[in-house]
Structures are given as structure tokens and as C-alpha cells.
Design a protein that fits this description.
The chain has strands at 3-7, 10-12, 18-25, 34-39, 46-51, 57-59, 67-72, 77-82, 91-96, 111-115. It is mainly β.
Length: 117
């Protein structure tokens, strides 16, 4: 059974950092792309970053230079390191088994990130 579980969210002050984790089970990460998405209150879900099965990484424009996606195949986890956070980054963050929203068959339950002073 494919399962994704996010963790690492929380409350952080502007300028701070968080590292999110996406633990995968039921498949191995080198067989799949994993995408990070987020949904802020009252807004549509948007893409954040993606790592493909062969390790290529992609970022949406507003995250470039601040966020870093990585993968630990031994632990079957994907991480999202988020630096220089702003209140606009406040959202529920999800990982999913694709780089685009419509292509993802499996989603995690999400982890809340709140950036405020």
C-alpha cells in the first residue's frame, strides 16, 4: 500500500527555516517522482518543488534560492529545506507522487507551516 506521511511543519518567525520530511512506504523513491505542493487559506494548491526518479530537481519561481529538495533513498524520504521564510509561505504543505498536481495518484495528509512574528 502506497503511503506518504509529511512531518516537520510548525510555527516559525519570518526569516526562519524549517525542514519538511516526506516518508514514503509501499514503493521506492528511485522509482517515482515526488512533488511538494502547498495550499494557503483561501487559495488554490500550488506546486513548490519536485525531485524526479533520476534525481533531477525543479522549483517554482518564488521558491528558487530559498528552498532545497533532496532525497534519502536509504530512508525512503524526501526533504524540503525551507529558508528565509516569509508570511506568504504560510500554508499546508503536501507531498505527492508526481511533479504536477493532476498527475499525482497519492498524497500525504499535509503538514502545517505558519510563518508569523
Amino acid at each position: 500500500q502506497v503511503q506518504l506521511v509529511e512531518s516537520g511543519g510548525g510555527h516559525v518567525q519570518p526569516g526562519g527555516s524549517l525542514r519538511l520530511s516526506c516518508a514514503a512506504s509501499g514503493f521506492t523513491l528511485d522509482d517515482a517522482a515526488i512533488g511538494w505542493f502547498r495550499q494557503a487559506p483561501g487559495k488554490e494548491r500550488e506546486g513548490v518543488s519536485c525531485i524526479t526518479s533520476d534525481g533531477n530537481t525543479y522549483y517554482y519561481d518564488s521558491m528558487k534560492g530559498r528552498f532545497t529538495i533532496s532525497r534519502d533513498n536509504a530512508k525512503n524520504r524526501v526533504y524540503l529545506q525551507m529558508n528565509s521564510l516569509t508570511p506568504e509561505d504560510t500554508a499546508v504543505y503536501y507531498c505527492a507522487t508526481a511533479c504536477t498536481d493532476g498527475a499525482a495518484d497519492h498524497w500525504g495528509q499535509g503538514t502545517q507551516v505558519t510563518v508569523s512574528s
